[in-house]
Amino acid sequence: MEAYLLAQNGGIEKLKKVTMPTPGIQTNEVLIKTKAIGINPIDIQVRNSKDILGMITHGNIPQQVVLGWDVAGVVEQTGEGVNDFKPGDEVYGLLNMPGLGNTYATYVTADARQLAHKPAALDFVAAGATPMAAMTAWQAVVTRGHVKHGEKVLIHAASGGVGHFAVQIAKYLGAYVIGTASAKNKNFVMELGADEFIDYTEKPFEKQLQKVDVVIDTINSVEHILRSISVLKKGGRLVYLQPHFQSAIEAQLLAAEVSGSGVFVNSSGEVLAEISKLIREGHVLPKVTQVFGFNELPQAQAAVESGRATGKVVVSVNDHTKEGFIKALTQEEINTIYDFYGVFSKRDYNEVDRILAPDWKDIPLAPGQVEGPTGFKELVRNFTTAFPDLIIKVHEVFGTHERAGVRAEMSFTHSSEFMGMAPTHKKLTVAIHEFHYLKDGKLTTTWHLEDWLSMLLQTGTWPVNGQQ
Ligand SMILES: NC(=O)c1ccc[n+]([C@@H]2O[C@H](COP(=O)([O-])OP(=O)(O)OC[C@H]3O[C@@H](n4cnc5c(N)ncnc54)[C@H](OP(=O)(O)O)[C@@H]3O)[C@@H](O)[C@H]2O)c1
């Protein structure tokens, strides 16, 4: 399998893609073929800091560190003690938190009790985006925040991974939700269902609102949390995501007569199953705004590290277009195909040498047609002289890199005699199905799947409205 090893703590360049043996499974484990990996700030914090790596591994830092906690994929194998999952099941989960989740790999082992079945409403990328952020939001809003119907809840970084789930969960519970972020994220936050939006860059948030019942503070700053305490009603509840700040804020909590609760998310298939239920019922949905290929995983981390990500950032594994197993036709290749048919409509022969390779082959060749671009120019000239109002309409270009199929139609009303066929003054339409090979941006071969021209020449009649 392929995996990213953390060579040592530091920047994204310390993430090294390697090939290593696919791990075996224990009795209660499943082997997952990875489809998507959600990227979270903790991934970056652990990458950067040996202290945090030590904390998360309880001081037992393994020789080979593979980061990543969120995963979505397909069960490949199950241990003997696993009853809830079978090979082929689509699953997702937050793995081994606290500990190392090892999800930055194309195969991942997981304790089956930490997984849930992927809701059909989510594709793999959306599923990979969900576990850590949604489970943290659940703990913050439901387990610790005890948010109730009609309460006023302030959610900081409502545009972030945790915040955007917290807004949706609090709204589901019937709360009045105020979300903070910078102005560019206002629409995003309001569309999640928030009742009010505060642009924290305009002026301090505490100057922009009345007292609230609950604050969910996702910002990694004691100073920020102290400001959050100042906007709580007496008896209000603060939930914060950095439990180690507890001693630094305790005195202010007491003075303000509010409670404070620090959340640290733990792996739990049961909690994820609760969230899956909300997803299935349509109350909560992850919003993914950036998707990277497996080769681009370090760039995905950089996007989260910027602190400016909206919603979730996800790495899609085995994404053919990104991984290069099968590359899609490029936009340039598609344009070249359109230009090929455009020569018939525009009668611009200067374009031909740009579109066709010097040894372009037309299969089969029209009777008397010379090979290569010269022959094509001649063909177009003869055609457009015989059919002065000829139009070729391309309906569809499809295929993979350097191989394109085309569905098009050619229509005309008037023709002069052409290769022995009688002139016509009826509107006629001929279906075209062709295949092209391209190399270095030029067509190298064109196949006429239905050799309509030879057919016409043999039967001596034009097909009417596409019947060949
Ligand atoms: N304790 C736990 O179990 C746990 C679990 C998950 C996450 N966390 C922690 O929770 C924090 C948030 O995680 P996340 O995944 O939500 O992060 P994230 O997705 O990276 O957050 C990015 C968002 O935060 C907003 N933001 C940044 N500074 C802000 C400010 N001062 N006020 C309001 N919004 C601000 C940004 O909006 P703008 O670009 O508009 O500023 C951006 O949309 C991280 O520190 C993470 O480590 C803890």
Oligomer: single chain
- Going by CATH, the homologous superfamily of the largest domain would be Medium-chain alcohol dehydrogenases, catalytic domain
Count of separate DSSP helical elements: 15
Radius of gyration: 31 Å
Q: What's the main sheet like?
A: 7 strands, mixed
- Helical coverage, percent range: 25-40%
Derived from helix and strand composition plus strand pairing, the structural class reads alpha/beta
- N-to-C terminal Cα separation, in Å? 51 Å
**Hetero compounds:** NADP nicotinamide-adenine-dinucleotide phosphate
Shape: elongated
Regions with little confidence, pLDDT below 50 for 5+ residues:
320-325, 464-468
The name of the CATH topology of the largest domain is Quinone Oxidoreductase, Chain A, domain 1
The whole-number mean of residue pLDDT values reads 91
Q: What amount of the residues lies in strands?
A: 25-35%
Under the CATH scheme, which class of the largest domain? Alpha Beta
Domain count: 3
Walk me through the topology:
Elements: E1 2-6, E2 15-19, E3 29-39, H1 41-48, H2 50-56, E4 70-78, E5 90-94, E6 107-111, E7 115-117, H3 124-129, H4 131-144, E8 152-155, H5 161-172, E9 176-181, H6 186-191, E10 196-199, E11 212-217, H7 222-229, E12 232-240, H8 246-256, E13 259-262, H9 269-280, E14 288-293, H10 297-305, E15 312-316, H11 320-323, H12 331-346, H13 352-355, E16 356-363, H14 372-386, E17 391-400, E18 403-412, E19 428-439, E20 442-448, H15 452-459
Parallel strand pairs: 8-9, 8-11, 9-10, 11-12, 12-13, 14-15, 16-20
Antiparallel strand pairs: 1-2, 3-4, 3-6, 3-15, 4-5, 5-7, 17-18, 18-19, 19-20
The chain binds NADP nicotinamide-adenine-dinucleotide phosphate.
